[in-house]
Amino acid sequence: MKIGLYPGSFDPITLGHLDIIERGSKMFDKLYVGVASNMRKTYLFSDEERLQMVKEECKKYPNVEVILCSGLTVNEAKRVGASAILRGLRAMMDFEYELQMATANKMLDDDVETLFMMTNPHYSYLSSSVVKEIIKDNGDISKFVTPNVIEMLKKKYF
Ligand code: COA
C-alpha cells in the first residue's frame, strides 16, 4: 500500500492546497494531510481550528486522513508509514526552500522520498498570506478559498 504525507501550515487552507490534495489522493492508496503544529510559528488559527478546517475540506476524499504534526516531518512520515512526503511547487521562489527541506529530510531519513507536484497555474500566485491580506480589507477571496474558510476568516477579522 502506497502511503503519502502532505504537510503544511494551512493557515488557512486554500484552493491551491486542495488541488494538491485532490491530485495527491489519486497517487497514493492513503494520503495523510499533516497540519503542522510549530510552537515557534505564529498562526492566525489555532492548531485545533486548522485541524477542524482541513478535516472539513477533506471529508469528501475517502482515502485522505487529516492529522496534527509536530516535530520533524520525516518522523511523522515514519510514524504513519508514509514512504513519501508530498509538496506543491508554485514557482521558482519555492524551489530553493523546498530543495533545502527535501535535502535535510533525505539526510535525516533516506527511506522517505519527497515528491513535488506542480501547483495548478490558477493558484501559482496564491498563498495563505495573500488570502489574509485581501480579507483584512474586505476584498473578495471566493476564488481562493472555500465558503467555510471565508466564514472562519470573517470571524477572526470582523
Ligand atoms: N497553493 C497555494 N498556496 C500554497 C501552496 C499551494 N499549492 N503550497 C504552498 N502554499 C503556500 C502556503 O499557503 C504558505 O503561505 P504563507 O507563507 O503565506 O503562509 C506557504 O506556501 C508555505 O506553505 P506550507 O506548505 O504551509 O509550508 P511551510 O513553509 O509552512 O512548511 C512544513 C510547513 C510543516 C512542511 C515545514 O515547516 C516542516 O516540515 N516543518 C517541520 C520541521 C522539519 O521537519 N523541517 C525539515 C527538516 S530541517
Account of the protein in words:
It is a single chain. The protein is of the alpha/beta class and 158 residues long. It is 44% helix and 20% strand. The chain has six helices and five strands; from the N terminus they run βαβαβαβαβαα. A five-stranded parallel sheet has the order 3-2-1-4-5, with helices on both faces. It is globular, with a radius of gyration of 15 Å. The mean pLDDT is 96. Coenzyme A (COA) binds at residues 7-9, 11, 14, 16-17, 20, 36, 72-73, 88, 90, 101, 104-105, 119, 123, 126-129. Coenzyme A binds at residues 7-9, 11, 14, 16-17, 20, 36, 72-73, 88, 90, 101, 104-105, 119, 123, 126-129.
Give the helices and strands, then pairings.
Layout: E1 3-8, H1 15-27, E2 30-36, H2 47-58, E3 64-69, H3 73-80, E4 84-89, H4 92-108, E5 113-118, H5 128-136, H6 147-157
Parallel strand pairs: 1-2, 1-4, 2-3, 4-5
The site of coenzyme A has 22 residues, from strand 1, helix 1, helix 4 and helix 5.
Percentage of residues in helical conformation: 40-55%
The average pLDDT value, as a whole number, equals: 96
Instruction: Return the string of H and E elements.
Output: EHEHEHEHEHH
Q: Number of helical segments?
A: 6
Global outline: globular
How many runs of DSSP E, i.e. beta strands?
5
Biggest sheet strand line-up = 3-2-1-4-5
Tell me the fraction of residues in β-strands, as a range.
15-25%
The kinds of small molecule bound in this structure are:
coenzyme A
Poorly predicted segments: none
First and last CA, distance: 45 Å
Task: Name the structural class.
Answer: alpha/beta
Radius of gyration: 15 Å
Main beta sheet, described?
A: 5 strands, parallel
